[in-house]
Structure formats: C-alpha cells, structure tokens
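Good morning C.,

I know you're traveling, so I'll keep this short. The sequence:
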Amino acid sequence: MILTHDNYFSRAAMGFYMSTSQFKAFEKCESAALAELRGEPVEKDKPAYKEGRFFEACLYGEEHLFISQNPDMVSSRGTSKDDLKANYQKVIASANAFKRQPMFMEILSRCRPQAIVRGEIAGVPFKGCIDLLDTSTLEGYDTKCMRGFDKIYSETEFARISWYFAYGYHYQAAIYAELLRQEHGRAGQQHIIAATKEDVPDVAAIYFGDDILENALDIIKEYAPRYDRIKKGIEEPERCDKCDYCKQTKVITGFDVVLEFE
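The tokens, ready to paste straight into the viewer:
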C-alpha cells in the first residue's frame, strides 16, 4: 500500500500497517486497540490530540486558520465569549516558549516537515510520520506539547518514571530510526523538542542513546507479531480489565471469592 498524507490515517492504512500509536495501544489493552481498529467507540483523549495539532499549527504560523476550521475552540458563553478557550491559550503560550529557543527555530527552518517512512519490523509492516526530518543527516525531531515534565507513575514498573518513557516515546524513536535505516541504509539520532502547557511553560530537548533504542526495538520485535496476528483475527486479544473500554464491555458471570484478609 502506497502511503500519502491524504491516506496516512485512513482505516485501510491502519489495518495494513502497525504504527507507534497502534503498538502502544495494543500494549496498553489488546481488546481496546482491536475494537478501535474495528470502528467501535473507544474513549480517546480528544482535547490533548487537538491541542497537539494546534501546537504544530502555531509553530508554522497557521494558528488562525486552525481556529477557523475548529470553531469549538472559541468560547460561546459567559464572560469569555468569543475568546479562545483557556486550554488553547496555554498551547499558544507553549508554542511561544518553543519559538523563543533559537536552537528549536534553526531545526524548524532546515528540516522537512511530516516525513513519511515505512518498512517492516519482525515481518510486520510499519509506518511512521516524523514531525521534522533533516534529510542530509537523517536526524529526526519530534515536537511535543506536554502537560508537564514531571515523572509519571507506571503501573507496570510500580514506580514513577520519566515522561518520555511513560508515553512510549522511546518506542517511537526506535521505530523511526529502524524505518530510516531500511529506507536509506542509515539513521541519525532521534530527538524530542518539547514545551509544556504549564502557566509558565518549560522547554526540553533530549535524544535517545543507542542502548535505549536497541532495547525498545527488541521489545517491539517481540510483541509486534502477536499484535499483527490479533489484527488479522488469528489470535484473540486479551483484556486489561482496567481501561474504560474494558469497564464498558465488562460482563459479570459469577462471584469473586475472598479467601483471606488483605
């Protein structure tokens, strides 16, 4: 399947290719991820998704066009009527903090935006769309608008971990690097350049070392084939019994037995 910006997010492309977001969705809950692919309603963090797209529009000076295409971003009642809603005003502040960084703007000026890459990992077709790609060095830069840079509690690690690990951005970097290697024979470092949506926005610039990317790629190679078989109906998905989808589709068939005091 040939990928373009017009069909990148199509149902056909999502069915054929695995992506970072899809891999992370299956890792979180196989049943919910499969339901979403089948078109079933699965609760998503829609405000955060739109805020991320608005952040990108602000970086390219397209914020007014984006607002005109999304009138729900403007308040329609109360004292704030006709003003941009508070969460989107914070995104503008985040973008301004980002644009005050000369290093970030230099990266923005020399990189190709929204570079599509594709290939196979462990026999599974993968796709990616790199926010900013330096076509001479093949270094990738992902722009992020984060709630904050504090550590986040992980239910799998039973500890607070760095935000870029909590959101699986190391998987994203590993996938992009591998797909670049397949397309070009080499890959540059994969970076994150980010700003926060705090009252006073913070900024950060990081890249993932080779050991981190190799470890992440090993995990992807281990689990991606199973997720692909689930997509194809060869294997049954497991439920996490924690996410909203599992709660909404839960069916009680008996009583849990309590055998001891907690």
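Safe travels,
E.
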